[in-house]
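User: I'm curious whether this sequence folds into something compact or stays loose and floppy. Could you predict its structure so I can see for myself?
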Amino acid sequence: MTPPTIKLVPSHAIADARAGIRHVFVRDLELMTSIGVHAHEHEARQRVRLNLDLAVLEGDRELGDEIANVVCYEEITNAVRAVCDRGHINLVETMAEQIAAVCLGENQVRSVRVRVEKLDVFDDVSSVGVEIERFNPEV
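Assistant: Here's the prediction. I'll summarize afterward.
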């Protein structure tokens, strides 16, 4: 019997006091959006659930209890809503990539994990979708 392969979690993907990583997250954001490759999916908006986890480099500056010194989850959430309102997207993968790009546009975001779930595709399945993780090597 072959021993199981052990995979290490990359250090940029976990909250780490030594590296100064903080996670900002958005959980279970449900939106109506136009998504899908089938003709009926072009005709009506459908429910998606979005989950985001941003690994944010804290840096050495003081927070000072000021919103300007952190990645604002309200701004991130509004930017995600804007992606979903731009117009029809065929693939959940495309939507995930567009959302990841918006998140990585924040100058402190080192990596982002994005999950996009379509909620009403099959009667016997709670959701289908994709989860991606993207990394900004410059942060």
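Summary: The radius of gyration is 17 Å. The CA atoms of residues 80 and 99 lie 6 Å apart.
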